[in-house]
Design a protein that fits this description.
- By secondary structure, this protein is an all-alpha fold.
- The protein has helices at about 5-15, 20-30, 30-40, 50-55, 75.
């Protein structure tokens, strides 16, 4: 999963909950500025713990996969890219 796809996933999950960015940041226990950076695609500048806290409030988790492995049908259906 690319960082941009992760950002898009976070935005989609927030909108699905009907929350604004302020609410999402509050529920995740992080600053609004940090939350906005995640949605804007600057996740690489945010610690992994904070990313996991945001994913947790949306019922999401990160998964590891072998680098260079072809995407599975499920990953392709979710719109994932390298």
């Amino acid at each position: 999963m690319s960082l941009m796809h992760l950002s898009e996933t976070i935005v989609h999950a927030r909108k699905k909950k009907g929350w604004n960015q302020t609410e999402a940041a509050k529920y995740a226990g992080i600053s609004l500025n940090t939350y906005r950076r995640m949605e804007d695609g600057f996740i690489d500048e945010v610690g992994i713990t904070k990313v996991n806290e945001v994913l947790e409030i949306f019922g999401l988790e990160m998964a590891l996969r072998e680098k260079g492995r072809p995407l599975t049908l499920e990953e392709l259906q979710r719109g994932e890219t390298y």
